[in-house]
Amino acid sequence: AAAVEHTFVVSQVNMTHLCKEMAFTVVNGQLPGPTIEVTEGDSVTVHVVNKSPYNLTIHWHGVYQLLNCWNDGVPMITQRPILPNHNFTYRFDVAGQEGTLWWHAHDAFLRGTVHGALIIRPRHGAASYPFPKPHREIPVIIGEWWEKDLPQVDRNMTNGYFDDYSSGSTINGKLGDLFNCSGVLEDGYVLDVEPGKTYLLRIINAALFSEYFLKIAGHKFTVVASDANYLTPYTTDVIVIAPGETLDALVVADAPPAGRYYMAAQPIQAPPPDTQTPEYATRATVQYSSSSSSKNSSRDAVVMPEMPHQHDTIRSFYFRGNLTGARHRHRHVPARADERLFVTLGLGSVCRHGGASCKRGGNLQESIVVANVNNVSFHIPAATATPILEAHYYRRRRAGAGAGTGNEHELADRPPRAYNYTDQTLTPFGPEEMRLEPTSRAVVARRFRHGATVDVVFQSTAMLQGDSNPMHLHGHDVFLLAQGIGNYDAARDEAKYNLVNPPRKNTVLVPNLGWAAVRFVADNPGAWLMHCHFEFHLSMGMAAVFIVEDGPTMDTSLPPPPEDFLDGRP
Ligand code: C2O
């Protein structure tokens, strides 16, 4: 195993797009940031030098971080944020997983521009892929272009103001030629291919706000992995990917090589009436190297794929329903759960100025709309407080196993009130205005015994105006056992669980007005954030911390913090 070392200088650089020059916070001057390439078993060291004006952390999305929660990179959960002009070094091993993951800033919307791919190659080389060895491997990162100060957007959302949208979508940092300003077309990403060869696209949805359709005119995808877990190969002409997810797909360059073909990404939006969000597709070009005429051919000669309807959320549901885990690589799914959690995902309201003066149904001036799980909205501890992991670690040392952090609110295993979750007359922004439930705000956590097998059913509610929810768990992969539309019903739906070859994921899309059931083994001691990977839902509080207790032995217990862990503190 090798040691892979990087230095990430985070700073603001000026970029001009759509006729506007703006400062963006990026890593090493690049957007997307540098790709980290490792072989399974390698150890990674990343020195983060924060020359930006913001507090930040970097999270290694999907990396197990076994017994290494200290390096998970979540502000105030696993560490204090890295202050401007401070440095921090992350150290982790990449073991027991291969495929595509990514890294990103974890807070204040900064991940919109602070992100990059993390590629894990198999120990025994490409010959050990459970699919034909590709000619080349190419990261395809879907993102958004924001002509905004992202930390300001975050503050707006946290305070209940929702007028910020991105100006467009990007593929590998480029807007593409659907965008122009004063007649000047934006550059698009160009993927050069050779006829007959096979390419492995490592597709990452790094966007803050949208799930996407991705299509290439004249070509098909064979999806072979997701979230660094192999899948049964599935051939499709459209990929559907939610924020936080990765999908590895093979594309054979088998179209007539004289042509050029657009690769288009289009956001999927909640169905009407939520139509205010502008629709911004982006496109890249697939170009055959043998095509000598390609440089001269007019833009009209490029073939555009026919995209699904922008509100076709059912297409997303079926796409996911077709994915299964690759059986021969499959870890065994525990036959039954020790613990069950039923978690509703919704919106609620809290009083803007505290106190009891804002009554239910009060207007938006008085109350703030927050997102919640089981009607509790996650409150990130103040930067002056002790991070949850540190509090857990030291309190536990003093008080013995089972001690909490002292200020957490235990996540109930059900919402406080049962109702017909998917009844659309409960929609908060309908004609009757603001039927939001009063919500409490807390550091909401749930503790699990080491080694417990846990079932979580995520239930989307009509409170969300039809948004789906890509739910992401840190430090563990989950088996996606089943998904459905409508209200989850254990008596009926447990029979649908796939216990044979479910996909293993770190991010699971809970369908709009539906549910998803997952199972995981809580075998990684530490404090792990579980949250919606739509950035606005995260900043509004759709999150909880899963605290996994130590196991009985040293090598199932969280070690002390690394020696230089407190570097970078004020
Ligand atoms: Cu990719 Cu907690 O995030």
From TrEMBL:
<dbReference type="GO" id="GO:0052716">
    <property type="term" value="F:hydroquinone:oxygen oxidoreductase activity"/>
</dbReference>
<feature type="domain" description="Plastocyanin-like">
    <location>
        <begin position="414"/>
        <end position="550"/>
    </location>
</feature>
<dbReference type="InterPro" id="IPR011707">
    <property type="entry name" value="Cu-oxidase-like_N"/>
</dbReference>
<dbReference type="InterPro" id="IPR002355">
    <property type="entry name" value="Cu_oxidase_Cu_BS"/>
</dbReference>
<feature type="domain" description="Plastocyanin-like">
    <location>
        <begin position="137"/>
        <end position="271"/>
    </location>
</feature>
<keyword id="KW-0964">Secreted</keyword>
<dbReference type="GO" id="GO:0048046">
    <property type="term" value="C:apoplast"/>
</dbReference>
<dbReference type="InterPro" id="IPR034289">
    <property type="entry name" value="CuRO_3_LCC"/>
</dbReference>
<comment type="function">
    <text>Lignin degradation and detoxification of lignin-derived products.</text>
</comment>
<dbReference type="InterPro" id="IPR011706">
    <property type="entry name" value="Cu-oxidase_C"/>
</dbReference>
<keyword id="KW-0732">Signal</keyword>
<keyword id="KW-0052">Apoplast</keyword>
<dbReference type="Pfam" id="PF00394">
    <property type="entry name" value="Cu-oxidase"/>
</dbReference>
<feature type="region of interest" description="Disordered">
    <location>
        <begin position="401"/>
        <end position="432"/>
    </location>
</feature>
<keyword id="KW-0677">Repeat</keyword>
<dbReference type="GO" id="GO:0046274">
    <property type="term" value="P:lignin catabolic process"/>
</dbReference>
<dbReference type="InterPro" id="IPR001117">
    <property type="entry name" value="Cu-oxidase_2nd"/>
</dbReference>
<dbReference type="InterPro" id="IPR033138">
    <property type="entry name" value="Cu_oxidase_CS"/>
</dbReference>
<feature type="domain" description="Plastocyanin-like">
    <location>
        <begin position="10"/>
        <end position="123"/>
    </location>
</feature>
<dbReference type="GO" id="GO:0005507">
    <property type="term" value="F:copper ion binding"/>
</dbReference>
<dbReference type="Pfam" id="PF07732">
    <property type="entry name" value="Cu-oxidase_3"/>
</dbReference>
<feature type="compositionally biased region" description="Basic and acidic residues">
    <location>
        <begin position="407"/>
        <end position="416"/>
    </location>
</feature>
<dbReference type="InterPro" id="IPR045087">
    <property type="entry name" value="Cu-oxidase_fam"/>
</dbReference>
<dbReference type="InterPro" id="IPR034288">
    <property type="entry name" value="CuRO_1_LCC"/>
</dbReference>
<dbReference type="InterPro" id="IPR034285">
    <property type="entry name" value="CuRO_2_LCC"/>
</dbReference>
<comment type="similarity">
    <text>Belongs to the multicopper oxidase family.</text>
</comment>
<dbReference type="Pfam" id="PF07731">
    <property type="entry name" value="Cu-oxidase_2"/>
</dbReference>
<keyword id="KW-0186">Copper</keyword>
<keyword id="KW-0479">Metal-binding</keyword>
<keyword id="KW-0439">Lignin degradation</keyword>
<keyword id="KW-0560">Oxidoreductase</keyword>
<protein>
    <recommendedName>
        <fullName>laccase</fullName>
        <ecNumber>1.10.3.2</ecNumber>
    </recommendedName>
</protein>
<dbReference type="InterPro" id="IPR008972">
    <property type="entry name" value="Cupredoxin"/>
</dbReference>
